[in-house]
Specification:
The chain is of the alpha/beta class and 308 residues long. It folds into two domains: 181 residues, 3-Layer(bba) Sandwich (FAD/NAD(P)-binding domain), CATH 3.50.50; 119 residues, FAD/NAD(P)-binding domain (3-Layer(bba) Sandwich), CATH 3.50.50.60. Helices cover 25% and strands 27% of the residues. The chain contains seven helices and 19 strands. The structure holds NADPH dihydro-nicotinamide-adenine-dinucleotide phosphate. The site of NADPH dihydro-nicotinamide-adenine-dinucleotide phosphate has 19 residues, from α5.
């Protein structure tokens, strides 16, 4: 079996940038990009803060360009999910079901996935009015009343985006101040179609076969109320996609990959590097993910030189 120089697990800005740099270094990397390639930007509309695109860029288009650039220099792609790994000996092993791949180095760039509230009614009504992707599903709710849960940039961005379709958007947040950046807050506060319910959590999404509203609890008074809506969006952040790594490399209590030798992308296991949201608890931007993908590819190059 051929031993790869580098397997990149995951795509998105980090994985694709690692592919661009590693391919241009003649490493002929193999990127196992997942069934849903491109990462979280595939679920975004306008990306306004990626340098070099003053007019903004649609997330999926930006990711398609990243991928093309990686492919142009010789990155190979498999659009499947890695199911498990074995980093206990050299060469490192990566599996897609029963199919084994051997490699001298790995870059983990599996990113993070949407967090849910964890309510039974939320999962029951998923796709029947419950969604975590305003970009994907917003257009289904023309003229509708919508709820969005969360107080971060994602919630504000999605609330603002949803007003293109909705008659009204109610933001429900568990605190009385937002975590979102000032510019996103101001945009939402100024929008006449957006209102806020503070200090409150959703205890149940209402409806049998379609969403009809939400039961909301005020966390200061304990009072329960019902807010009618036809669409219910959740935007409360993300969790790192690292379940397949548990016990194989060091993860922090929230599941993020620990990089013990920052600013390098080295993990606790020799030959394994991590880039992007999977190791980033602070910045989580497309540009910082891309930058760390570049760092990881350069770290891999240096590591491979030590193997000769
Ligand atoms: P954040 O972690 O920043 O915010 C999550 C929000 O959801 C917080 O307000 C949090 O409340 C709330 N929350 C978390 N868990 C629960 C729960 N179980 N029930 C109710 N509410 C909950 O995530 P985002 O996805 O908003 O943003 C992630 C990163 O991406 C940030 O760095 C952000 O700046 C960036 N981003 C940038 C954008 C842009 O610049 N265009 C667009 C979108 C995201 P609390 O505040 O109480 O903790």
């Amino acid at each position: 079996m051929a031993i790869e120089n580098l397997i990149i697990i995951g795509s998105g800005p980090a994985g694709y940038t690692a592919g661009i740099y590693a391919a241009r270094a003649n490493l002929s990397p193999l990127c196992i990009e997942g069934y849903q390639s491109g990462g979280l930007l595939m679920l975004t509309s306008d990306v306004e803060n990626f340098p070099g695109f003053p007019q903004g860029m649609m997330g999926p288009e930006l990711m398609a360009n990243f991928r093309k650039q990686a492919e142009r220099f010789g990155t190979r792609f498999i659009s499947k999910n890695v199911t498990h790994i074995d980093f206990s000996s050299f060469p490192l092993k990566v599996y897609i079901e029963n199919e084994e791949f051997q490699t001298k180095a790995v870059v983990i760039a599996t990113g993070a996935a949407t967090k849910w509230l964890g309510l039974e009614s939320e999962s029951r009504l998923l796709g029947k009015g419950v969604s975590s992707c305003a970009t994907c599903d917003g257009a289904f709710f023309k003229g509708a009343k919508l709820i969005i849960v969360g107080g971060g940039d994602s919630a504000m961005e999605e609330a603002t985006f949803l007003t293109r379709f909705a008659s009204h958007v109610t933001v429900i947040h568990r605190k009385d101040t937002l975590r979102a950046s000032k510019i996103m807050q101001e945009r939402a506060f100024k929008n006449p179609k957006i209102s806020f319910i503070w200090d409150s959590e959703v205890v149940e999404v209402l409806g049998q076969d379609a969403v009809t509203g939400a039961r909301v609890k005020n966390l200061k008074t304990g009072a329960l109320s019902e807010v009618p809506c036809e669409g219910f969006f959740v935007a409360i952040g993300h969790e790192p996609n690292t379940s397949f790594l548990k016990g194989h490399i060091d993860l922090d209590p929230k599941g993020y990959v620990i990089l013990p030798k920052r600013p390098t992308t080295v993990t606790s296991r020799t030959g394994v590097f991590a880039a992007g949201d999977v190791q980033d608890t602070i910045y989580r931007q497309a540009i910082t993910a891309a930058a760390s993908g570049c760092q990881a590819a350069i770290d891999v190059e240096k590591h491979l030189e030590t193997l000769h």
